[in-house]
Write a structure and sequence with these properties.
Blueprint (H helix, E strand, L loop, with lengths): L1 E6 L9 E5 L9 E6 L2 E11 L10 E2 L2 E2 L8 H13 L4 H6 L4 H5 L5 E8 L11 H13 L1 E3 H8 L2 H8 L2 E8 L18 H12 L4 E6 L5 H14 L3 E5 L7 H11 L3 E4 L5 H13 L4 E4 L11 E7 L16 H12 L2 E6 L4 H8 L4 E5 L10 E6 H6 L8 H12 L3 E5 L10 E2 L16 E3 L4 E3 L6 E3 L12 E2 L5 H11 L5 E4 L9 H10 L5 E4 L12 E6 L3 H4 L6 H13 L10 E6 L5 H7 L3 H15 L6 E9 L2 H21 L4 E14 L2 E10 L2 H11 L7 E7 L6
Parallel strand pairs: 2-5, 10-15, 10-16, 11-13, 11-14, 12-13, 14-15, 17-27, 18-25, 18-26, 24-25, 26-27
Antiparallel strand pairs: 1-2, 1-4, 3-4, 3-6, 7-8, 7-9, 19-23, 20-21, 21-22, 28-30, 28-31, 29-30
Helix pairs in contact: 7-8, 18-19, 21-22
The structure holds adenosine-5'-diphosphate (ADP) and zinc ion.
Length: about 725
């Protein structure tokens, strides 16, 4: 038997298939050990065949199997190939996506426990060997027992009987269960008519993809869980993707209670061993629902009956390391392979997704009301320019302070949200709210201190740094925003008795960082939660009646064509944490730009209005989805080598540009806006293209050659162009 093997080394020179002979049975998808040059390497069997073009005496032999089952199932093997093809990455690299990292690095061993039972009905044990007789008697009654337990009870008699062949031993794999304590009784809810209708629509539609556009608190989760339960009942499996942060303690408990051991929950709070075991349970089929962040789309399930992507607009669904895959695209491939449905859910769908739904490619379902007709919280816009004029330097407006006091007195909880994503150096006039923008691109400019100038990240145009506001002549130019730490400090001064929790990247490090904070807040061990983006997502805290957004402007002026979209999403999501049960909630939104249309639409929960406005503008400026922004990055520590690679890559790309210039809106090479990061020089070729077909040629041009010390990669619609 001949095996085609991909060696698990992510290097371009070995990114091809090698034939090996094999004298024991193997299947495609198995990991094997093979001689490779002077070493032994791990490889993946991608095909088994009868003959090789390579002469038999030259063929090396597979040494052994890494596992006795194919680690990559047929579907996943197909997916790995498609991903490698689409993103032009070595197959070894895309295959790795499908395995828990722990498995490759070999740090996790499977744990076994051995069980003993009697080997035969008849056996001879001398009457004076009392312990041995007792052991035999014990096993005759019980059938079998764990070896370690028997050793405790019967001591050396166990070894003695094993030696005589009276006992037989069987080794069985033990899986660690990270949720031993989880409750096992879930209240199965009766669906509301709206939920019922949505479930039916997904079941009955002929379209593969359904976009569930439901306001925050409209009960989308219950719809997903019902669909998943149906898939399970039909003997199929399911994949349920959520942004990592949405896997809050409540959500975990709910999933465990509902699906028990059928659910494998993959999240960053698990230890390496636990993660491996969850993967293993899915692979062998004892767990049939894979729940997790982006990478759970690579779960080793078979025969998927449904795939759900919750909060589909979330940025965490695009990978930022090679291969830079798009989760939705992978999900679609799996859906097509299995002939099942894909459900995308969001209160604030990505503009691109919504457009596809509106154009009829996806089924569009709307849930405009919260469960039990609970009202959406009222959003009050506060003009921070007035606070500056009044001489209030604190991060809290008078209005916010008043509402906060009210909330605390009533014994409710509050969330204060700060936008850290906008930590870029955008210049804002504190007197009138003016923000410097590019003349060509209508995106905010970014201040670069080393050159003391403003730059547009989309076209590279440079502008002189401002000394006064061109709109009002004011000289209070600066960056808005304070840190979470400062906010907590101020809160303690204002409300000494209030219990405050802080949640940001600094407080959530470590294995369970944000779970701990969120569960403490859920248990009402704090009155106020102060945090960044992490507090905005998916949480369901019934006692929260006030949400304060301290600096809505920060994301509004992030230098990104999606900054309006991001802001609308953030405001809506964070507002959605307020008033989810019991009392009516409210939201105080502080801004230097209260007339801004994005904030107006967000205040009124007017997604449609926002969408119409946004899509018109994107069409006029030819930004996605009407074009694709493609950036080819060339980075390396040695400037000369990097420049040489850039020259070559640029030459190849120029050929593509030359052949398809009518499909290009923009094509230029330049320094990346930030010229050096971590000692690496950064150059880029920036493009904006209108035909997706050109993309393939761009990837082709870029992967023509690989460089030793220079990294070259392609980014599609990158969210950060620094
Ligand atoms: P979404 O995901 O749309 O923001 P959730 O799924 O979190 O909304 O639901 C909002 C709240 O309504 C939750 O507290 C949930 O427990 C509750 N809920 C959902 N469906 C029902 C139902 N059919 N009956 C009663 N309560 C429900
Ligand atoms: Zn520009």
């Amino acid at each position: 038997m001949i095996c085609e093997v991909i060696v698990d080394i992510a290097h371009s020179e070995v990114d091809r298939i090698f034939d090996y002979a094999c004298d024991f049975p193997v299947q495609a998808g198995m990991r094997v050990a093979v001689p490779f040059g002077k070493y032994t390497a791990t490889g993946f069997v991608v095909r088994v065949k009868e003959e090789s073009d390579c002469p038999a005496e030259k063929l090396k032999k597979i040494l052994r199997k890494a596992e006795d089952y194919p680690a990559i199932n047929r579907e996943c093997l197909m997916l790995a190939k498609k991903i490698a093809e689409r993103y032009r990455c070595p197959l070894a690299l895309s295959l790795r996506l499908f395995l828990p990292a722990e498995m490759r690095t070999g740090k996790v061993s499977e744990r076994y426990r051995s069980y003993l039972s009697l080997n035969a009905e008849e056996f001879a044990i001398p009457p004076r060997a009392k312990a041995q007789l007792a052991l035999a008697e014990y096993l005759r009654e019980r059938g079998e027992e764990e070896a370690s337990l028997l050793r405790e009870k019967f001591g050396s008699a166990v070894t003695a009987l094993l030696k005589k062949g009276v006992l037989k031993e069987e080794k069985r794999q033990v899986l660690r269960d990270p949720y031993k304590g989880a409750a096992a009784n879930a209240p199965v809810r009766t669906l509301t008519p709206a939920q019922e209708k949505a479930v039916r629509a997904v079941r009955e539609t002929e379209k593969t993809v359904t976009l569930l556009h439901g306001v925050t608190g409209s009960g989308k989760t219950e719809i997903y869980l019902t669909l998943i339960a149906e898939a399970l009942a039909a003997g199929k499996t399911a994949i349920f993707l959520v942004p990592e942060i949405s896997l809050t303690p409540q959500m975990l408990a709910q999933l465990r209670a509902r699906f028990g051991g059928f659910a494998a929950i993959l999240h960053s709070g698990l230890s390496a061993g636990e993660r491996f075991d969850e993967w293993r349970r899915l692979r062998e089929g004892s767990a049939r629902i894979a729940i997790g962040a982006r990478s759970a789309i690579f779960a080793p399930v078979e025969n998927a009956g449904i795939i759900v992507i919750d909060e589909e607009h979330d940025g965490s669904y695009s990978s930022e390391s090679s291969p830079r895959y798009n989760t939705f695209d992978v999900a679609l491939l799996r859906t097509q392979y299995n002939g099942c449905k894909l459900v995308l859910g969001s209160a604030t769908p990505a503009v691109e997704t919504y457009r596809r739904a509106r154009e009829g490619e996806f089924q569009l379902l709307s849930l405009p009301d919260r469960i039990n007709a609970r009202p959406l919280p009222e959003v009050q816009l506060v003009d921070m320019r007035r606070e500056v004029k009044r001489g209030n330097p604190s991060p809290f407006s008078a209005r916010l302070r008043e509402r906060l006091e009210h909330c605390l007195q009533a014994g409710n909880q509050a969330i204060l949200f700060l936008n850290r994503r906008g930590y870029s150096q955008t210049v804002i006039c504190r007197d009138c709210g003016y923000v410097a923008k590019c003349k060509n691109c209508d995106v905010s400019l970014t201040y670069h201190s080393e050159e003391d100038c403003l730059k547009c990240h989309y076209c590279g145009t440079r502008y002189k740094m401002l000394s006064a506001c061109p709109e009002c002549g004011g000289v209070h130019l600066g960056y808005v925003g304070t840190g979470t730490q400062k906010v907590v400090g101020e809160l303690k001064k204002l409300y000494p008795s209030a219990r405050v929790l802080r949640m940001d990247v600094d407080t959530t490090s470590g294995k369970e960082g944000h779970y701990k904070i969120l569960s403490a807040f859920a248990r009402k061990e704090a009155d106020i939660l102060v945090g960044t983006q992490m507090v905005a997502k998916g949480h369901d805290f019934p006692s929260v009646t006030l949400v304060g957004i301290l600096d809505a402007d920060m994301s509004l002026h992030f230098p990104d064509y999606r900054s309006g979209e991001r802001t609308f999403q953030l405001v809506t999501q964070v507002a959605g944490r307020s008033g989810r049960a019991g009392e009516t909630g409210e939201v105080v939104l502080q801004t230097y730009d209260p007339e801004n249309y994005i904030l107006r639409f967000a205040k009124n929960y007017d997604y449609e209005g926002f969408y119409e406005h946004e899509i018109t503008m994107r069409a006029a400026t030819m930004f996605p989805p009407f074009a694709k922004i493609v950036r080819v990055m060339v980075t390396g520590e040695d400037e000369k080598e990097t420049l040489e690679a850039l020259k070559e890559v640029y030459g190849n790309l120029q050929a593509v540009y030359g052949a398809h210039s009518e499909e290009f809106l923009f094509f230029n090479r330049m320094h990346a806006p930030v010229k050096r990061i971590q000692r690496k020089f950064r150059y880029q070729v920036l493009m904006r293209i209108t035909a997706p077909a050109v993309l393939k040629e761009i990837y082709g041009a870029v992967s023509e050659k690989r460089y030793k010390n220079v990294l070259v990669y392609v980014e599609e619609n990158p969210s950060n162009l620094s």
